[in-house]
Amino acid sequence: MEWRVLPGLQPYPETLAAMEARVAAIAKGEADEAVWLLEHPPLYTAGTSARAEDLTAPDRFPVFTAGRGGQYTYHGPGQRVAYVMLDLNKRGRDVRCFVHKLEDWVIRTLGEFNVTGERREGRVGVWVTRPEKAPNLDGTPREDKIAAIGVKLRRWVSFHGISINVEPELEHFSGIVPCGIREHGVTSLVDLGLPVTMDDLDVALKRQFDQVFEEGVACTSR
Question: Is 209 left (phi over 0), alpha (psi -120 to 50) or beta?
């Protein structure tokens, strides 16, 4: 397993091309599995379910077709992106289980900073409840998204992965309807009042990855 932290702001097209090349090599048995941790410059990506009306500021930042599942997502400085290239031929050809483990990885990582991340039926990603904010019109508590998940498989090798908001410019999300969900907001670790650094998060991500993916944490029903 290769675990890399890429410095600076990585250009999206070149990173995507490198990731696809690595996936092809893994599928051929010519390269090890890999997790790349990085940041991108400000940009929007469109998943396979993206709707044109959800790109509300098309001229604000570059827009790229990602090829992953999901809808529109923002990437930018202060957000940790983890590209996960794992061979599911060796880990079990179960897409539902794989996505569940990615969610579990994020939730366990956030837990190291005393943040309770949660799944929500019908909504991909990881969410936090905001009791300090005014409730929704129907009286339910406000919820904000703190992490996005979008993956693709090629010959049962995964790519793309997750993104966790550490300290991005949250206003940048206003140019899209994140993941097509209009009823909820977006938050970050720093927005929650936690002075977490990218290095802090990377240490937690590595520790929890080993717990979830290397020590056989079982999948449970969603």
Answer: alpha
Q: How many residues in total does the chain contain? A: 222
In this structure, what token pair is assigned to residue 125? 């990603």
Is 0.85 topped by the overall pTM? yes
pLDDT tens, per residue, the chain with 222 residues: 999 999 999 999 999 999 999 999 999 999 999 999 999 999 999 988 889 999 999 999 999 999 888 889 999 999 999 999 999 999 999 999 999 999 999 999 999 999 999 998 878 789 999 988 888 888 888 899 999 999 999 999 999 999 999 999 999 999 998 755 665 789 999 999 999 999 999 999 999 999 999 865 555 544
Out of 179, 189, 196, 204, the active site residue is 179
Active site residue 179: yes
Q: Cβ distance 38 to 84 under 8 Å? A: no
In angstroms, the CA 178 to CA 173 distance is: 7
Q: How many CB atoms lie within 10 A of CB 186?
A: 21
